[in-house]
Structure prediction request, 677 residues.
Amino acid sequence: MRKSNIAAVLTSFVLVASSLMSVTPSGAVGTKLYSGKEWKKILSEAKGQTVNWYMWGGGAKINTYVNDYLGEEAKKYGITLNQVKLNATPEAVNKVLGEKQAGNDKNGSVDLIWINGNNFATGVQADIWHCDWSTKLPNTKYVNWNSSAVNQDFGLPVNGCESPWATASSGVVYDSKYVKKSNLASAAAFTAWVKKNPGKFTYPAPPDFNGSMTVRRFFYQANGGYNQFLGKFDQAKFDSAMNKTASLLNEIEPYLWRKGATYPATIGDVQKLFATGEISAYLDYGARNAFVEVNNGLYPDSTRVGVFGDGMIGNLSYVTIPYNSPRKAGAQVIANLMLAPQAQMKLQTDGIVGLPAINMNITPISGPYRSLPISKHSLSPTKLAKKANPEISADWVNAIDSAWKDKVQK
Amino acid sequence: MKFNLRIPIIVLFLLYLFVPFISIIFWSIARGWRFPELLPTSYSLRAFEIAIDPSGDIVQGVITSTLIALVVGVSATLIGSFAGRAIAMHNFRLKKSFQFLVLAPLIVPGLAVTMGIQILFIRYGLVDTVLGVCLAHLIPTVPYVVMIMTGTFANFDRAYEEQGQVLGASRLTVVRKVTIPMVIPGLSVSFLFAFVISWSEYILTLLVGGGSIKTLPLVLFSFLRGSDLPLVGAASIVFMIPPLILLRFTSKYLVGRSSSMTGLGSV
Prediction:
């Protein structure tokens, strides 16, 4: 119950998070694409299909992008894109699960789902995804499938069952009047700054999405990185890692806002504290958008966005196709359209879903992309994604969040 | 030692009432307002520009809230007037129990009841509808109207109505020309109360409306969760205006018969 709630929160946040990118410029693709003939067959099959895309429908700008932009692009291929708006992604997963239980293996109603993290994992467990297609799409040549941030979704191998759409990577929003660039040289350098500047930093209490991310970043920090946590959840490993994390967080707690006696409930509260000048830095998946607040006058002109020298945390959201969709061809064409360089650049310029999921530098429009203006109160996607640490699986995330309550918040 | 406490108490009371408004007003027109500035250093009307955007959340919220509060104000006043008249002017079996039941929503904690209402409304398909929200808002509003109208009808002399009938007026004419003019102060105050309670209702709207009926309090709360304090300020000011306008027109009935005391300051 709790897990699926958190998954819903996770997913819907990624949907809303107007953030970032984690593709490192390497461009290598290890998998074979569809041959020209195979793709032609898919295109002709797709013609005339109506693809039902089940996705969180609470973002007006996202809906405009999907219907007015992607919908029009799909028409060029004779495909009708039908957006089915959800309150939360588990609704779509449950629908497919229900169809499977009812024995509807051929004529499912869901053709495409916007997804990541625990919702994807649920479907993998129940074996309801169509696989071995996403790494073959023509536009997937721009996707850096070699990166573990791409070929693993919250620690779970993607296996060609889902195709990337957008990236969210976190950053540090800070006031350059009080925080120097050198204070962000590493997570350790930053905690040193926190201790020297009592009351000037805080983070929202998990399970707030951004609070959870902040704690997770310190979890990596206290344990020398994320590698050992990429696999399945391990209680013994977790206990010792969490103890180290708790002692790190408790060490800085007296130097937090209000001496850590209380934590803000939401990222909105933290942003308010920054706007009123009470704190001077915070971690946020939406850090890139700080420039909007500066333009509105809410944040000071000295606001900057940075990343720890040893990386922040980022994740990708994907689209997947259920095993029983009768319109897999149309769904694949749409997934391919979403990865087109123009469509990906539009993600960034419209500031909606997240940042490009592909390596824009190896696309034909890398020039125009690079010359997109970046506010000095923001950070380029490439810099944000630098050394981005991947997410770990929902089991770990949930365990960390609830242990934080017992051991840090108390 | 003789010391007049009246003035200091009035001053304290006024401060208590108005100081929060001062910060709201400043926030609504501040460009930014950071510690340690005593007052904002630059101002902007950005928040109000967003607030009056016809397709924006605030204008939409005002429209939804006004519609609901008007429907609730009129229905609650109607329902409550009949009940109030019955209680004040008639004797019937189980009258005491009836009175208790009518006032029960004021005594029972609202949140506890709301959960039950939600389940019931889901069953009847009333959740996520304007009708459902209006029905739910009748629960906290009707008891106030009944109380006010019981008081109004307690001083009502039926002889006036009888006089009208004797003079040949139809029942409807009597209601229109005699009854309503006599109880109009009570009706106005009832409508004001019902409107204002419905206007500021949050929990019932959230649970019954399921978040899809976005009244102004819901919009305000969603702004509060964000970081845009000027927008919160502007929304709060917009939020206060309709009840104040209504108060302007009903205040004479709140302070007694003197129609010279219509100024807002006297309320």
Remarks:
- Confidence is low (pLDDT under 50) at residues 258-267 of chain B.
- The first helix of chain B runs from residue 6 to 29.
- The domain at 57-255 of chain B is CATH 1.10.3720.10 (MetI-like fold).
- Strands of chain B lie at 30-32, 42-43.
